Amino acid sequence: MAHxxxxxxxxxxxxxxxxxxxxxxxxxxxxxSLVIGGTQLVLGVTYxxxxxxxxxxxxxxxxxxxxxxxxxxxxxxxxxxxxxxxxGSRGLGxxxxxxxxxxxxxxxxxxxxxxxxxxxWLCWAYLWLLFFLQLALGMERLAPLxxxxxxxxxxxxxxxxxxxGLSGRWPGEPEIAAGAAVSLLALLLLAGGLAWRGRHQTxxxxxxxxxxxxxxxxx
Length: 219
Prior knowledge:
Shape: globular
CATH class: Mainly Alpha
Structural class: mainly alpha
Largest sheet: none
CATH topology: Serine Threonine Protein Phosphatase 5, Tetratricopeptide repeat
Low-confidence stretches: 207-219
CATH superfamily: AmiS/UreI transporter
Number of strands: 0
Mean pLDDT: 88
Helix content: over 70%
Number of domains: 1
Distance between the termini: 76 Å
Order of helices and strands: HHHHHHH
CATH architecture: Alpha Horseshoe
């Protein structure tokens, strides 16, 4: 169930990133987020109901996995409702800040048992932090950075790991986790470079001067 939710998150992150870059209508991304978030919440409840937390050592892992599914699901539902109902996004921003802090705690909780998952949670916590800065603190200039970060990391942090988990090849070696950390950091730095380049190209673009009408020409 967790890997299926992760696979759905890859698509949701990509569409929301494209919407942040104004390459996709925000309403389309909002409806998709609402559908994905609702699906993940249902899968999370099913995941808890179908598991047996009584076995020694399974309880904490079960709860940590379910917590991640619910955090993603609630975020997507809130994103969809916020856009469709024009709620103003301030509350969503503070919620993203709280979820970002929870992401850091989950990264620490998984660091010993599953370092690869811990790296992924650090990446997701950073993305939630960006939303907090933009929506709660009003840093609208971060929109291009958020868009590029979502687009570039959506597949590397969600889709690819989801397929690895579904195929039974989820990595447990610290070396692979370190490689994933370097790769995700490189993608985030690339996102920052693309956002900076786009902002400066827009600022340097000369304003369009309208040609005067024939009657306005000076002889």
